[in-house]
């Protein structure tokens, strides 16, 4: 299984257009919004979430570009972890695809109904909650009931899931969990035996957003890295990689103590474009 990290930042990317914090103005290598591409055969690709940056991400990734026919594309579908806009808005950019299957939790599909009606006008999209990807085995773990801000009411959850994706041909296992409000029941089992865990690295500490007037991290649906690091240290089997990193997160600075702490715990902070073969 091939895995390409198309984007590794949280909503807004880094730098974020409406932010003048130290990290956004320090000239760090830019990161686009979180999105991953996976393939069992290197020919057909599936997206894990679909960021607003998807057009640029596709054009920057030769394996995802159109061809060899003038309108042939290698994309075969999209798996959404939730209904957050920074994870789904990219579907609008893919409207020329003529329709793709999209998998998401039932509650997320319900919240996305107005959005879906727009996308459906451009082709035969299908919206599913039971995941079935040829050549790969996918297990789904509900991880929280965090609703998007635009959907304060709606059906019962789960609203957010994590995915465990296995290539039966190689035994390679990827876990994709960019939005963890806690370390939920069943998560240890989900990551057991995994080769690569892409873990929520949105915020480093619980008070991180206080400096820019934002809410606390748990209210936003993200377990801070300080709470995850002890668990990572105690579970050295998989390769742990933090993704969905917010523009305020000090780990983005490679000279920071926080960055060093992540590496010391055995985790990585891979940049956009990083590729794995599992």
From TrEMBL:
InterPro entries: Metallo-B-lactamas, PQQ_synth_PqqB, RibonucZ/Hydroxyglut_hydro. Pathway: Cofactor biosynthesis; pyrroloquinoline quinone biosynthesis. Keywords: PQQ biosynthesis, Transport. It comes from the Bacteria. Residues 45-232 form the Metallo-beta-lactamase domain. GO terms for biological process: pyrroloquinoline quinone biosynthetic process. Transmembrane segments: none annotated. Pfam families: Lactamase_B_2. Belongs to the PqqB family. NCBIfam families: PQQ_syn_pqqB (TIGR02108). May be involved in the transport of PQQ or its precursor to the periplasm. This is Coenzyme PQQ synthesis protein B. The lineage of its organism: Bacteria, Bacillati, Actinomycetota, Actinomycetes, Pseudonocardiales. The gene is pqqB.
């Amino acid at each position: 299984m091939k895995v390409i990290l198309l984007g590794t930042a949280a909503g807004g990317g880094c730098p974020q257009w409406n932010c003048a914090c130290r990290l956004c103005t320090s000239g760090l290598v830019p990161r686009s919004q979180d999105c991953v591409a996976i393939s069992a055969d290197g020919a057909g690709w599936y997206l894990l979430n679909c960021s607003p940056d998807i057009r640029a991400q596709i054009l920057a990734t030769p394996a995802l570009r159109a061809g060899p026919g003038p309108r042939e594309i290698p994309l075969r579908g999209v798996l959404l972890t939730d209904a957050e806009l920074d994870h789904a808005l990219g579907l609008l950019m893919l409207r020329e695809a003529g329709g793709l299957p999209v998998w998401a939790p039932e509650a997320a599909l319900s919240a996305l109904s107005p959005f879906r009606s727009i996308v459906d006008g451009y082709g035969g999209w299908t919206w599913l909650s039971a995941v079935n990807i040829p050549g790969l085995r996918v297990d789904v773990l509900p991880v929280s009931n965090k609703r998007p801000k635009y959907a304060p009411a709606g059906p019962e959850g789960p609203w957010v899931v994590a995915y465990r994706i296995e290539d039966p041909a190689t035994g390679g296992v990827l876990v994709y969990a960019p939005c963890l409000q806690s370390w939920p029941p069943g998560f240890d089992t989900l990551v057991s035996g995994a080769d690569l865990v892409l873990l929520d690295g949105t915020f480093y500490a619980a008070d991180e957003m206080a400096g820019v007037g934002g809410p606390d991290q748990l209210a936003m649906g993200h377990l801070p890295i300080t709470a995850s690091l002890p668990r990572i240290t105690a579970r050295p089997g998989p390769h742990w990689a933090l993704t969905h990193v917010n523009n305020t997160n000090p780990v983005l600075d490679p000279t920071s103590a926080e960055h060093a702490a992540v590496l010391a715990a055995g985790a990585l902070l891979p940049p956009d474009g990083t590729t794995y073969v599992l």
